[in-house]
Amino acid sequence: MRLAIYGYGNLGRGAEAAILKSPDAELVGVFTRRDPNSVQTRTGAKVFAADEILRFRDEIDAVILCGGSATDLPALTPMLAKDFNVIDSFDTHANIPAHFDAVDAAAKAGGKLALISCGWDPGMFSLNRLYASAILPDGRDYTFWGRGVSQGHSDAIRRIPGVLDARQYTVPIKEALEAVRSGKQPELSAREKHLRECYVVAAPNADRAAIEQAIKTMPNYFADYDTTVTFISAEEMREKHGALPHGGFVIRTGKTGLSGEHTHRIEYSLALDSNPEFTAGVLVAFARALCRMASRGATGCLTVFDIAPADLSPLSREALRRTML
Amino acid sequence: MRLAIYGYGNLGRGAEAAILKSPDAELVGVFTRRDPNSVQTRTGAKVFAADEILRFRDEIDAVILCGGSATDLPALTPMLAKDFNVIDSFDTHANIPAHFDAVDAAAKAGGKLALISCGWDPGMFSLNRLYASAILPDGRDYTFWGRGVSQGHSDAIRRIPGVLDARQYTVPIKEALEAVRSGKQPELSAREKHLRECYVVAAPNADRAAIEQAIKTMPNYFADYDTTVTFISAEEMREKHGALPHGGFVIRTGKTGLSGEHTHRIEYSLALDSNPEFTAGVLVAFARALCRMASRGATGCLTVFDIAPADLSPLSREALRRTML
After folding, report:
1. C-beta of residue A57 within 8 angstroms of C-beta of residue A4
2. Which of the ends of chain A has fewer CB neighbours closer than 10 A, N or C?
């Protein structure tokens, strides 16, 4: 499959590495809205201006969109879906139905196939919520995130006056995890499920007490959580907080038997050194399915729920049955 | 969907309970090779003689086959696949390709759809091996089973002279699990991965030392494992070992980045109070997909790898995107 990367931030760089590891994938090029001459790829892959992409209409089997969900993808994915098979990792859960409709209409108009919201949440975590709820209908599922860096929360802190840099870790609370695993199906508030750990580099003369107060009372982001704020130096930030680890847990417990006499637990967890590189691995696997389904004539918009798992693997169905079933 | 249960042991009884919990499923009846008058169902479901099933050709959307993999399913699944959409939990991994071919030929001849080897291993564990290997191609996966009752190993002990009853628990070894989770990708022997715990009721005058020796040296079943043998009374067996718990772990660790600089771990685990009732829950969810795909005209044999997850849920695709993605 001949893939293109559109957008070259952390996720685009992850996709470049993931394509290199896929024996059946070839990288046509990286498309950027920056000056292509200013972009140096990790593998020496060619860089093109974003608005040149239509020239490559017949040379690209699928475009991996590596933009942000806030402003990039809502415009980009429908725009490109008219001319290319596209895949994105749109992750604003509440806006997925609207994004789906826009992409579906564009892809159908162009006779192309699209797959949205593909990563680990939404993505692999969603799949696990679906499988578990179908198998154990009389049950309840819980999703925990972390320990890992939340880019959105880190950005929110950086916007506070006097903050030079910040990194926020979302941390699942052990007692909540254990209560869920016990099968008791507890009601848990936001505060009971996750802690928020903040590391902040403040400007030399900044009012640290005011910064800490501004973080801890910030609505939606921090006010509903127990939040710790630690001021550190720029060096410490570079040395200890340069990576982008993440992960989490999807746990469903449920009952079976005529009177619910048996309890079961299904747990899926991820522990990731690099959130963008792992997400890129998911994107490349699903791009394989996208290309196969497009070659069978499918059009419109799909999600991970619509993909038969066999289409994700470079192995044949016969080999999968023999080696993995 | 109108379902039938063929075979009424532990799995058939689990399927009966699982169908009761599925709002979109109706149980047409239980088909047994025993005298139907001797079988009392848990819910009062009707019982018919197995050879009457062809009379119900137009009233059954799918048959859930609840026989054993050793002798029942290799004959039954191809036989019934000529006249019905069928699903089984055939679990002799090495014979899956041959079973698939036989069922595929029969289903195609009859214009029916079949799904084999559907449970948790093969089944949900297989799916997790596939997803994880597609996402992290540069990695390695490990499957651990237990703590849980192995019926095959329990039966093997019961065949030893002087043994009245036996229960064997397969127990994953913690140190092996931790070594795998660390990302080190260790080489592990059978003995290093699992312990075998045996509880045995001996006949009054039996030679216990000889029984213990016979168990511990039994080829394939026990000789390659550290095995403990504990003699207990028939009462203790009834009181403490009457349940059929099981579960296990599928763990894949892998590397990403240009030089493999980042490590990731994907872990899926099950902790089940009742192995047959959980397996029945998997079968009913996949029977839903089977009925939907058959109504779209699909024929032949499938496995869990061929099923788009959305087809497992009673919810519409639109509702799934809105609530689970």
Report:
1. no
2. N
Q: Which pLDDT score, from 0 to 100, does residue B256 have? A: 98
Segment A156-184 shows an average pLDDT of 97
Q: If you compute the radius of gyration of chain B from its CA atoms, what whole number of angstroms results?
A: 22
Query: Residue B209 is which amino acid?
Result: A
Residue A23 · residue A314 · CB < 8 Å: yes
DSSP H helices in chain A: 10-20, 72-81, 96-110, 124-135, 151-158, 174-181, 190-193, 208-216, 234-240, 275-295, 317-323
Do the bridges between strand B113-115 and strand B47-49 make them parallel or antiparallel, or are there none, so unpaired? unpaired
- Which amino acid is present at B12? G
For residue A124, the chain B residues in CB contact (below 8 A) are 131, 135, 266
Average pLDDT score over residue span B90-95: 94
What confidence category does residue B247 fall into, taking pLDDT thresholds of 50, 70 and 90? very high
Mean pLDDT score, A155-172:
97
Q: End-to-end alpha-carbon separation of chain A, Å?
A: 26
> Could you please report the per-residue DSSP string of A211-224?
HHHHHHT-TTTTTT
What's the token pair of residue A245?
A: 């680890």
* Bridge pairing between strands B246-256 and B262-272: antiparallel
Q: Quick check: A281 and B256 CB within 8 A?
A: yes
The CA angle A195-A200-A201, to the nearest 5 degrees, is 170
* DSSP per position, A84-148: S-EE-----GGGHHHHHHHHHHHHHHHT-EEE-S-SBTTBHHHHHHHHHHHH-SSEEEEEEE-SE
What is the sign, positive or negative, of the torsion defined by CA atoms of A297, B305, B134, A301?
positive
**Can you read off the two tokens belonging to residue B88?**
């089984």
Complex ipTM > 0.85: yes
Q: Measured between CA atoms, how close is A10 to chain B, in angstroms?
A: 12
Give how far A143 is from chain B: nearest CA, Å.
Answer: 11
Q: What CA–CA distance (Å, rounded) separates A307 from A299?
A: 13
Selected residue of B13, B143, B262, B290 to mutate for chain A interface (largest A Cβ count, 10 A): B262
| Burial label, A233 (beta-carbon count in 10 A; 0-12, 13-18, 19+) | exposed
Structure-token match 């098979």, residue found: A85
What local confidence, expressed as pLDDT, does residue A61 receive?
98
Q: What is the C-alpha separation between A185 and A251, in angstroms, rounded? A: 10
Q: Which residues are CB-contacts of A209 (< 8 A; sequence separation ≥ 6)?
A: none
> What integer pLDDT is reported at residue B269 of this predicted model?
98
Is A320 in contact with B267 (Cβ distance < 8 A)? no
Burial B304-323 (b: 16+ CB within 10 A, else e): bbbbbbbbbbebebeebbee
Query: CA–CA separation, A55 vs A29, rounded Å?
Result: 12
pLDDT at A70 over 90: no
Question: What sign for the dihedral angle of Cα A276, A277, A279, A280?
Answer: positive
Contact by Cβ (8 Å): B106, B76: no
